[in-house]
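Hi support team,

I'm opening this ticket because the web form for multi-chain structure prediction keeps timing out on my end. I have pasted the exact lines I submitted so you can reproduce it. The total is 212 residues across two entries, so I didn't expect it to be a heavy job. Is there a limit I'm missing, or should I split the entries? Thanks in advance, R.K.
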Amino acid sequence: MSIAATPCPPYYAVIFTSLRNEEEPGYGAMADRMVELAAQQPGYLGHESAREGVGITVSYWENLDAILGWKVQTEHLFAQQAGRDRWYSAYQVRVCLVERAYGFFI
Amino acid sequence: MSIAATPCPPYYAVIFTSLRNEEEPGYGAMADRMVELAAQQPGYLGHESAREGVGITVSYWENLDAILGWKVQTEHLFAQQAGRDRWYSAYQVRVCLVERAYGFFI
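Hello R.K., no limit was hit. The queue was backed up. Here is the completed structure from your submission:
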């Protein structure tokens, strides 16, 4: 996992912050599969993810239509339902317009 | 660390994604101090943070003025310089308008 190489703004970010339930079988395979599927969606620009107590996954998208396309992707819908039912004790999704970006890479 | 209890949108998020250099003394103390200082800034709404290979810290703010106020806070300026010089091999800052938010807490 590294820093996503996103284009110049504007573009969109979805910040997904979650607290997991105790070890639920199948979580890792589901998470890997969702990353694989998201990367195939039109308008996907990249993602970053880390878990340390709280989990934070930020995915980047060309526009709102791309985010909506991912939200209603069939297999992702099942994962969202399982997430509410089993994997997470809490989560928050924030849809954001990235207005400015800067930083450095050595 | 938990999920930040932010108000209804719109508000702002700053996504700070970083790759650390190998253990640099003083990093933990600096990071703790920055969290303490940020929380004292006008317009601060909360933050979420996790590191797992990549580090992701998302801070939430009432508006762009609050973000600018934090960016130019004196002690934070020194930390930004030290970050570029020593602590990070790469980082990216993304300033975002949070347009929608949803989720659940049990």
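A quick check on our side: Strands of chain A lie at 11-20, 44-52, 54-61, 88-105. Let us know if the file doesn't open in your viewer.
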